[in-house]
Amino acid sequence: MIPELRKKFNSEFTEEKYNNFVNDLNKSFKYPVDFRISETPLFLADDLKNKLLKACEELSKQVTDPTFKVKMKDAVPSHLNIPGETNHPEFFVFDFAICKNQSTGEFYPKLIELQGFPTLYGYQYFFERKIRDHFDIPEDYSSYFNNVTPDKYIQMLRDVIVADSDPANVILLEIEPEKQKTRVDFAATENLIGVSEVCISNLIKRDKNLFYYKKNGKEIPIERIYNRVIFDELSRTKAEFNFEIRDELNVTWVPHPNWFYKMSKYSLPVLKGEFVPKCFYLRDLSSYPADLENYVLKPLFSFAGLGVKVDVTKEMLEEIDDPENYILQEKVEYAPLIETPDEKAKVEIRMIFIWQEKSILVNNLVRQSKGKMIGVDYNKNKTWVGGSTAFHKY
Fold first, then answer.
1. 3-class secondary structure, 77
2. How many CA atoms lie within 13 A of 92 on its CB side?
3. Reported pTM
4. Coil, helix or strand for 117?
5. Cβ distance 85 to 255 under 8 Å?
6. At 217, is the secondary structure helix, strand, or coil?
7. DSSP readout, 328-387?
8. Could you give the CA distance from residue 276 to residue 103 in angstroms, rounded to a whole number?
9. Distance CA 123, CA 128 (A)
């Protein structure tokens, strides 16, 4: 994106540097990084950065408007609707494909998905620091936005997740956290703000209160839950736990679990703007678009690309027994963007927000691919996927 920085980075890159970088990341935490780390960051040119900022501003206004929550009232499955829903999720993200206008040659973002759920907030802090330790990233370039510094970023995470509680009374909640692909982020979060991960199966409920055991056997009351549980995974994993998730509990959820559904693929058909592809609830279509080859079929309740169909036909759609659980979304063509030694890599950029009285764009992460899809398991689909970040001139 910035030719001189790209050329300089590529010319100075070595496998030894990359391996030292990866090893440094892995030895920084009690868990290794269980996903592929990209060999390179993205250097954002001002034109694309400004388009991303415009897209984020437009979409943030839509999803934080009170009418959005009303439109999403049916998004949460009834058996997973948890009391105490908040007006806004404390953490949310927008995923944009980077595309190219073939007429003008300009790059632009197009919304792929959104998520009212935490991403690698802790890990990205360390990633940005470590990549600077091993590669020459200009000092006047940053991965942060809105005058957020690394120190301020940590303080924002602490303020939102821990608030006025003792970190010992705050937990990061997951299903078997030590087995999750994002477990390195749990370790990074503990390093940053002192909040430990706890498996949902290890919680104890008495009346309306929850407790967990420290390693020394001491029982600790829980005041706040940094929620990383995808609750529809409870059925798939058959996880057993000692309370009813729809109980009223004396805990504060951060973010509230209902936002995982309300700000998700379910939201895509109601969002509008130049950076949003056409999208429909399959249940609402009495006839299908004539150009189905230009659409993808997505299940509403899945993640990491599971169940997405890219070669859609009328026959395929007519065979679906539960159209209420699918959306039909206009295909977005990722542009080959980042120069690498063999071919250009495609890019998806996740713009990361924190809510503190208002929505604040704070950071980003980047996924890159040389395959047909981004975010699909490499070993199963032969899709090259790497996680990184984007730097822009501050």
1. coil
2. 30
3. 0.93
4. coil
5. no
6. coil
7. EEE---PPP-B--SSSPBEEEEEEEEEESSSEEEEEEEEEEESSS-SSS-HHHH---EEE
8. 19
9. 9
Q: What is the pLDDT of residues 293-339, one digit of tens each?
A: 999 999 987 655 567 888 999 999 999 999 999 999 999 999 999 99
* Residues 6 or more apart in contact with residue 35 via CB below 8 angstroms: 181, 182, 385, 387
Return phi, psi of residue 115, to 5°.
-150, 120
Query: pLDDT by residue (tens digit) across 54-72?
Result: 999 999 999 999 999 999 9
Bin 243: left if φ > 0, else alpha if -120 < ψ < 50, else beta: beta
Q: What would the two tokens of residue 384 be?
A: 């090259």
Provide the edge-to-edge strand list for the sheet that holds 107-115.
Answer: 107-115, 91-100, 346-355, 359-369, 385-388
Give the angle 241-254-178 at the CA atoms, nearest 5°: 50
Angle at CA of residue 305, ends 299 and 310, nearest 5°: 75
- Token pair of 38 as six digits: 């990209």
